[in-house]
C-alpha cells in the first residue's frame, strides 16, 4: 500500500494508536501494587502505582490538567509519557490494539457518556465535564477508584470516550513528552 505522502492523501478508516509495534514490551517486569484513591486524586494516585511514591507527594509536583507535568515527574524515575494517536472514540475500540502491544499505558476517559455533554460550552467557572485517569499494564486495568485490578476486557468503563492515551516509555525512547 502506498504512503499517504506519495502523490495524494489516502483515507485510512483506522489509524493505530501506536506505530510501529515494539518488538517486546518496554516494561515487562514492572510490578504494580494496586491502591485506592482518596477523593478526586486519580492522576496522582495512578502515577503513584508506577513509582511507589505517596500520591500526596506527587500531587505537589504535577498539574492534573497538564500531562507534560506528569511526564516530567516520571522522567525523574527513568520513564516518560509518549502521546498515542486517538480520535473521538469509546475505549472499547482500542482494546484489541492495546492488548496486542502488551505494555504500559495511561488512559484518561471522559466521565459523561453522551458526546454532547463532552463538547458543551464551559460554565462560568470554566468547567466542562469530568474525566478519569487509570493505568493499563499488559492486560490489566489499575483503576484507583476500585479495590482491585481488573482485566481490560472486563473493565466497566469501556463505553467511555477516550480523552488522552499515553504509552509509558523509557526516558531515552525516541518518542515522548
Overview of this protein structure:
With 177 residues, the chain is of the alpha+beta class. Helices cover 20% and strands 19% of the residues. It is built from five helices and six strands, in the order H-H-H-E-H-E-H-E-E-E-E. The chain has a six-stranded antiparallel β-sheet, covered by helices on one side. The longest helix is centred in the N-terminal third of the chain and has 10 residues, at 42-51. The model has no long low-confidence stretch (mean pLDDT 90).
A few lines on this structure:
The protein is α+β, with helices and mostly antiparallel strands and 177 residues long. It has five helices and six strands, in the order H-H-H-E-H-E-H-E-E-E-E. Strands 1-6-2-3-4-5 form a six-stranded antiparallel beta sheet, covered by helices on one side.
Provide key terms for this protein.
177 residues; alpha+beta
Question: What is the strand and helix layout of this fold?
Answer:
Layout: H1 42-51, H2 55-59, H3 67-75, E1 79-83, H4 95-101, E2 104-110, H5 115-118, E3 131-137, E4 140-142, E5 150-151, E6 162-170
Antiparallel strand pairs: 1-6, 2-3, 2-6, 3-4, 4-5
Amino acid at each position: 500500500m502506498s504512503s499517504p505522502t506519495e502523490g495524494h492523501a489516502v483515507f485510512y478508516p483506522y489509524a493505530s494508536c501506536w506505530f510501529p509495534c515494539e518488538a517486546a514490551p518496554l516494561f515487562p517486569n514492572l510490578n504494580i501494587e494496586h491502591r485506592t484513591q482518596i477523593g478526586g486524586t486519580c492522576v496522582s494516585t495512578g502515577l503513584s502505582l508506577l513509582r511507589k511514591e505517596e500520591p500526596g507527594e506527587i500531587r505537589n509536583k504535577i498539574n492534573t490538567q497538564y500531562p507534560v507535568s506528569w511526564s516530567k515527574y516520571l522522567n525523574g524515575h527513568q520513564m516518560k509519557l509518549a502521546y498515542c494517536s486517538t480520535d473521538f472514540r469509546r475505549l472499547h475500540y482500542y482494546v484489541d490494539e492495546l492488548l496486542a502491544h502488551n505494555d504500559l499505558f495511561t488512559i484518561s476517559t471522559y466521565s459523561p457518556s453522551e458526546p454532547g455533554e463532552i463538547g458543551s460550552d464551559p460554565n462560568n467557572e470554566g468547567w466542562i465535564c469530568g474525566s478519569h485517569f487509570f493505568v493499563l499494564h499488559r492486560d490489566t486495568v489499575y483503576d484507583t477508584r476500585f479495590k482491585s485490578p481488573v482485566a481490560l476486557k472486563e473493565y466497566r468503563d469501556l463505553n467511555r470516550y477516550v480523552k488522552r492515551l499515553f504509552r509509558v516509555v523509557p526516558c531515552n525512547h525516541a518518542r515522548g513528552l
